[in-house]
Amino acid sequence: MFERHQGGENALLVQLQINNEEPGDSDEFRELVESAGVKVVEFISGSRSRPDPKYFVGKGKAEEVQQRIQQTGADVVIFDHALSPAQERNLERELECKVVDRAGLILDIFAQRARSFEGKLQVELAQLKHLSTRLIRGWTHLERQKGGIGLRGPGETQLETDRRLLNNRIKHINKRLDKVQKQRQQGRRSRQRAETPTVSLVGYTNAGKSTLFNTMTGATVYAEDQLFATLDATIRRVEIADAGPVVLADTVGFIRQLPHDLVAAFRSTLEETKQAHLLLHIIDASHPDRKDRIDQVNLVLAEIEADEIHQIEIYNKIDLLDDVEPRVDYDENGLAKRIWLSSKTGNGIDLVIESLKEFFGREFVHCWVKLEPSDAKLRAKFYELGVVISESDPEDGGFLIEVSMQKHRLEEIIPNQSNILPCKNVESRLNN
After folding, report:
1. Long-range residue pairs from 65-74, CB within 8 A, at least 24 positions apart, any chain
2. Whole-angstrom Cα distance, residue 273 to residue 298?
3. How far lies 27's CA from each of 58, 83, 196, 288, 294, in Å?
4. Mean pLDDT value across residues 406-423
5. 245, 238 in Cβ contact below 8 A?
6. Shortest CA distance to 366 belongs to which of 376, 374, 357, 354?
7. Strands of 278-284's sheet, edge to edge?
8. pLDDT 10s digits, 238-249
9. Long-range contacts of range 400-404, CB-CB < 8 Å, 24 or more positions apart?
10. What are the residues whose beta carbons fall under 8 Å from the beta carbon of 415, sequence distance 6 or more?
11. Which residues contact 59 (CB under 8 A, 6 or more apart)?
12. In angstroms, what CA-CA distances link 83 with 43, 61, 264, 268, 332?
């Protein structure tokens, strides 16, 4: 579709400090590029009071980049910044080389990592939205004349055709994603009916979310020491003693300057986070810029309206720190605020389980319920909710059911408190 410069195996990286702001993380930038399967041959840095409207870097720096391209043989220039379509077009024309900005780089990584049908659709949607603003540069080789009948070139017609095809494809993907979202909503509604709480794992990319998820659930989600190893939300049910079942959701990692198109495209996946009862915010405790990364995650949570959900900070990778043992820091209400652990070695995982038990077990009861012989429907209701532990046959008939469930839910089903019996009283009676 486009006449663009080809190539992209050897990259020259460009990162500027704008207006005395904090410079971007150069190590993270390199990691992103290497995650895309590209070899870094040169890194150019600099500073400007404000971006140049034509080249972003200014004419002098553009000439320096051009010289380095000739010296190193780079065939792609990657910017750690968001470039406008015009800036990309001008730079490609000036450098005679393929140019990719930060958003395009992240989209490329996502395209390589998407595995599920939904994930591939979400990435394609984000790519098409990103591409739709850059269509015009693909047709500079065609006539761009303007005038009356007989003077119009074919370029305008072709451009309009491509825009229509792109818009049609975007509409088609949105319809398919809407169907997937409805399926997810049905799953969430069934969990809500059973009152099964959801815990969503969030955090900066490569903080160790999937490793923690696998350790806690016994799952085999792909987990590697690389950026954006996980794109597809994975859900597993975990039984917490004295707190009942809890659903854990592993989600896509966040990153600085995450493209808005990508956030919008992954709305159905991020919905698991928005609807969660508790967030486990996984943090790489060994990273020198961990505070900034915490702030970046909280910014994305605010963008998807999940910033009001209670969160417990999980300081992971303490095996990379000296003299740090697994521990829990509590807030003024006696609930876990921070947990220090290593998901790789498993040290401290029990503290997460205990904290979930404390958080969700506050309103939890373990007791016996006595039902009359005519209460067969109520008995079936308890089994439907999956809260029955055991059942005994009382001498006077009816049903005697041992349950473990949320207190307010039990009181809704059994308003008569005399039918709710403490476990110790019933167990001693049964033993005798």
Report:
1. 65/12, 65/14, 65/95, 66/94, 66/95, 66/96, 68/12, 68/42, 68/44, 69/12, 69/95, 69/97, 72/10, 72/12, 72/41, 72/42, 73/10, 73/41, 74/10, 74/11, 74/12, 74/41, 74/42
2. 12
3. 24, 21, 41, 11, 17
4. 78
5. yes
6. 357
7. 234-240, 244-250, 198-203, 278-284, 311-316, 336-340, 327-330
8. 888 767 778 888
9. 400/368, 400/369, 400/370, 400/371, 400/426, 401/368, 401/369, 401/371, 402/366, 402/367, 402/368, 402/426, 403/366, 403/367, 403/368, 403/369, 404/242, 404/244, 404/364, 404/365, 404/366
10. none
11. 52
12. 18, 15, 19, 28, 46
- What string of H, E and C letters represents the secondary structure of 417-432? HHHEEEHHHHHHHHHC
User: What dihedral do alpha carbons 78, 79, 84, 87 form, nearest 10°?
Assistant: -70
Residues in the chain: 432
Closest CA to 195 of 426, 412, 432: 412
Cβ distance 204 to 289 under 8 Å? Answer: no
Rounded CA-CA distance 114/305 in Å is 25
Indicate the residue type of 390: S
Among 350, 278, 349, 271, smallest CA distance to 308 is for 278
> In 3D, which of 172, 174, 182 has the Cα closest to residue 265?
174
pLDDT tens figures, 239-282: 887 677 788 888 777 887 776 666 766 665 677 788 888 999 99
Q: Are 230 and 210 in contact (CB under 8 A)?
A: yes
Q: How far is CA 179 from the centre of its chain?
A: 20
Question: How are strands ordered across the β-sheet holding 420-422?
Answer: 388-392, 399-406, 364-371, 420-422
The tokens describing 116, both together, are: 């599920």
The first and second tokens of residue 313, run together, are: 């900070």
User: Contact, 206 vs 229, CB < 8 A?
Assistant: yes
pTM listed for this prediction: 0.70
